[in-house]
Amino acid sequence: MKFTIHKTSGSARTGVIETAHGAIQTPVFMPVGTAATVKALSVDDLKEIGAEIILGNTYHLMLRPGAERVERLGGLHKFMNWDGPILTDSGGFQVMSLSKIRKITEAGVKFQSHIDGTEYMLSPERSIEIQHKLGATITMIFDECTPFPATHDVARESMELSLRWAKRSKDAYVERPGYGLFGIVQGSVYEDLRRISAEGLKAIGFDGMAIGGLAVGEGQDMMFKTLEHTVPHLPTDKPRYLMGVGKPLDIIGAVMRGVDMFDCVLPTRNARNGQIFTKQGAINITNAKYADDASVIDPNGGISALTKYSKAYLHHLIKANEILGCMLCTRINIYFYVNMMREIRAAIAAGQLEEYYEGMRKVFVKEEAEM
Amino acid sequence: MKFTIHKTSGSARTGVIETAHGAIQTPVFMPVGTAATVKALSVDDLKEIGAEIILGNTYHLMLRPGAERVERLGGLHKFMNWDGPILTDSGGFQVMSLSKIRKITEAGVKFQSHIDGTEYMLSPERSIEIQHKLGATITMIFDECTPFPATHDVARESMELSLRWAKRSKDAYVERPGYGLFGIVQGSVYEDLRRISAEGLKAIGFDGMAIGGLAVGEGQDMMFKTLEHTVPHLPTDKPRYLMGVGKPLDIIGAVMRGVDMFDCVLPTRNARNGQIFTKQGAINITNAKYADDASVIDPNGGISALTKYSKAYLHHLIKANEILGCMLCTRINIYFYVNMMREIRAAIAAGQLEEYYEGMRKVFVKEEAEM
Predict the structure, then answer these.
(1) Which pTM value belongs to this model?
(2) Was domain B2-263 assigned CATH 3.20.20.105?
(3) What is the tens place of the pLDDT at every residue in B8-25?
(4) Which residues of B touch A (CB under 8 A)?
(5) Cβ neighbours of A203 (radius 10 Å)
(6) Which tens digit of pLDDT belongs to each residue from A45-62?
(7) Strand B275-278 and strand A109-112: pairing?
(8) If one looks up domain A2-264 in CATH, what number appears?
(9) Where are the domains of chain A?
(10) How many CB atoms lie under 10 A from the CB of residue A232?
(11) Cys bridge to B275: A180, B158, B261, B270, which one at CB 3.0-4.6 A?
């Protein structure tokens, strides 16, 4: 997996990751395809929107349809008919947030499926094995997502466990050209722990570095501060991935602090409840004021969901729980995110990222409070 | 609205209805777009599948978003971005089956919305007015759907009420070139009542004739018998529409008895539960035997939902309640129905409708029992 940086502007940079499944322009937003589908989108929709890489979830896929089944069926790419790059998370985060009962030991995590209560074990070795069976283009190490808030002692112990698991993940990983394994920096909001984690991961050696344990309630200021403490300890020549982030201003702010990759369920999940991201800010299409609004979201937009359907129609569809409402609003939001990343890359290349941030701040800072 | 018959074969015929919104090849299946959307399909999907006309529901649309609102927004075509013909039912059937409380008088039907309990009144005049505001290409008269079973006396009184309402519907209807108003024959399963109803409607004069009150539990034999009693009393030179029908063999059998138009929620509703219509019969994709089935529904099929996604993937999506499962299975089923009508038209033109029916009977008669 080759990462080439094209332009820089302060800490921000544009680049391209070349993988076995195609190239990824960075900074990039990766739509979340939890259970082998980005909810309410077909792969044709994703291609039309311009998404270059999507996420899959080890936790969800190991429960249903099962990693061994996906492998038998030719891997996740073939299974879901997506030929572009796929990044799979390691399952660590979902085990903590979704599974019913869990026991964390040095070996790994025992948990019960939230679907049917079946007991499973996830360890660094098993997580890497599952991601291999899925055929992930980018594999994530198995780590413990430190709860927030955490004392320095708790955060340190958790980070040290994650470092030991990172080493085991690396040992279990099978290298192939055009594929890659990413480390995940932990350490909560503590500068010294983030540095130790980053140094430890660098010593092991990975194809990219993720920053985990953020966007868990610490707030944007603390998140940005933690990025400022962490990014300087990451390799310059590897992609940097801020996991689970975020709102538009979170993303732009993180790009300004040197981050290259993002994922978040926000644009897909909120679409299904009628929150739409527009150039005028985030709106809630279920608001009564849109019931008679004949205007479209963006007459000059790049997809028909923006140009052909009135706000009144989208309002109606979401109010009536119509699947087409989820389909159209999801297309609109993923297009917004993909297009925002395009604009961010152009702004970096033009040395105008600050101006771009200021412009977006005027539109989004008020609306974000309502999200 | 002009109806031209091209070929006949026994009672079956092919033809074309020319409307203000384009031509409709008959026999035709009309996908049901209850609340201004065919559930889980975009209009682009409908165009790709080859649907030529869709249904809208007066009852649903009057409750939400409201007929006056749709009119203000430019009519149903513009509202839902569909430029082809739309047939709207009159609301009579849904008032009986969905609304909470109702009082039927000579004037019309008082009922409460199943959504929020608001009280509404539907009369022949109001139903026709609503359909006019929606901009329906084909408007249906407001009738009473006779319950099944009904005694001869009850069926007669209900049919006579529907006839008086048919006259009031005709009087309220505003004629425009390329638009049409259809009568609806009632009379339950009684030959004499069906004849009286048909003759009464012919005397009033309509652009097409629907056969109502069937597919309500009387069974296929009784339905076919009632068609055989009814169709001879309908004008030869007007389209004939069997409302709410049906399964593949119901449709082919009805075409053989002279019917030109059909609608049914079966292919859309069942798709969302994983029942898929294939050339090998109806299958339930949630069946465990499909969990590892790497084959696609039809490698030579006309849409990507048939050719690009394995049965195992469709199985997974429906089991996991993924919206994409509804999207793909609905495309598959509506394509099956639209394509079946194409094959029926070709079989009529070739004088081979009996052979086509026999071929389909071998595939579907067993599976239909499982529906």
Answers:
(1) 0.97
(2) yes
(3) 999 999 999 999 999 999
(4) 35-37, 39-42, 44, 64-65, 69, 72-74, 79-81, 291-292, 294, 304, 308-310, 312-313, 315-317, 319-320, 322-324, 326-328
(5) 10
(6) 999 999 999 999 999 999
(7) unpaired
(8) 3.20.20.105
(9) 2-264, 271-368
(10) 14
(11) B270
